[in-house]
Amino acid sequence: MVWKENVLESQTRSCRSSTEWVIPPPGSPPIAPTCPLEEASLNGSGTQLRPATGPTTWMSTMRIRTPVASLTWAPVRTNSALTCCPRGLREEVARFLSFYCKSPVPLQAENVVVLNGCASVFSALATVLCEVGEAFLIPAPYYGAITQHVCLYGNVRLVSVYLDSEVTGPDTRPFQLTVEKLEMALQGANSQGIKVKGLILINPQNPLGDIYSPAELQNFLEFAKRHELHVMVDEVYMLSVFEESVGYRSVLSLERLPDPQRTHVMWATSKDFGMSGLRFGTLYTENRDVATAVASLCRYHGLSGLVQHQMAQLLRDRDWINQVYLPENHARLKAAHTYVAGELRALGIPFLSRGAGFFIWADLRKYLPEGSFEEERRLWRRFLDHKVLVSFGKAFECKEPGWFRLVFSDKAHRLCLGMQRVRQVLEGKSQVAEDPPACQTQEPRDRHR
Ligand SMILES: Cc1ncc(COP(=O)(O)O)c(C=O)c1O
């Protein structure tokens, strides 16, 4: 079980690959190097190994416990195509996705492609689906790195479907995506001579933490079908929905996809298992031409045999995932969220968060007297000078200055310290909070019980 504990521990680290919440004060002890898969080979063996001590232990464990055959796995040629991983792993992924996406019928291994992370799936898909200069619609604010993902190889552009905080017309919540807004953005792109080839949906959404209802999903997919657009659905936070009441549904759970040949669904272990460093991403598409073309890029985006082997073991361990990992992970996310949300309320800061993902989308507009992006950047810089790293809205193409993304999936004492520093910045204090004893001892979960 030791390695599994480490997966839970590492959960808090994955988000910090993109957003480091707190920069530890000088002189604080270094964060112990851990790897999510330390002792991964324990899985199923029933043997108790000593606690992991770092990458060296992990590598020697892998060497001992990993079947030699997996070291020889490499891109393999089937009848007509190059595929990046053996059928066994794709079957495992298909079973995993069928179960967790709650698909009405079992998903097929033939429709699964595995590459090294969701970023690679974005790059590969965009390159395969578009000609140079063509575009995808994407509701903004969105996880900004996608701009690079689709541009890097394919030179594909993004057309933002700008959402705003004001609830107007038929909207029921801030930053709500509607078919009308999609239609307007598409028309706008067409009138500028931009060829739109598809739509990107992130569900649960980053940075909003929002989720789409099944009816909304259906409407967006119908919109895409009407305009013959491909839809890339990024469900990388699918298992990080910690409020059950929000009723998250994967697009693969829908009874009927309006246009299955143009619907492509992505998932990865980066977020839900806190393993962004391991690089494991999946694509599910019923379009065989697309699957074959994307899979052929595995020459450059494939997984090592070691990772394939370890991931197959992890994905099939349904008992541990259901009974140990997910309940604990959700409880920790919920506790951390409750703590940060409480602190923001105490500061009188409005925020959005619907119980999914690792972040809160906070409205700091009252701290920008002129409401400019320049001020937003200056405020972000002040946070940084106070050793707390949050992300400003401009990085997500948000059109309203003053929104910030705060990642809360971190250890209690770091969240506590981070919130103290946030408070100091917002109250205009000049000193930087160092780690006080109170922050090191109490877990937010305990305090909110
Ligand atoms: C919405 C979203 N998609 C994709 C990614 C990238 O995932 P990966 O690490 O698997 O490339 C991220 C990472 O932050 C993300 O937030």
From TrEMBL:
<dbReference type="InterPro" id="IPR015424">
    <property type="entry name" value="PyrdxlP-dep_Trfase"/>
</dbReference>
<feature type="domain" description="Aminotransferase class I/classII large">
    <location>
        <begin position="89"/>
        <end position="408"/>
    </location>
</feature>
<dbReference type="InterPro" id="IPR015421">
    <property type="entry name" value="PyrdxlP-dep_Trfase_major"/>
</dbReference>
<dbReference type="InterPro" id="IPR015422">
    <property type="entry name" value="PyrdxlP-dep_Trfase_small"/>
</dbReference>
<protein>
    <submittedName>
        <fullName>1-aminocyclopropane-1-carboxylate synthase-like protein 1 isoform X4</fullName>
    </submittedName>
</protein>
<dbReference type="InterPro" id="IPR050478">
    <property type="entry name" value="Ethylene_sulfur-biosynth"/>
</dbReference>
<dbReference type="InterPro" id="IPR004839">
    <property type="entry name" value="Aminotransferase_I/II_large"/>
</dbReference>
<keyword id="KW-0663">Pyridoxal phosphate</keyword>
<dbReference type="Pfam" id="PF00155">
    <property type="entry name" value="Aminotran_1_2"/>
</dbReference>
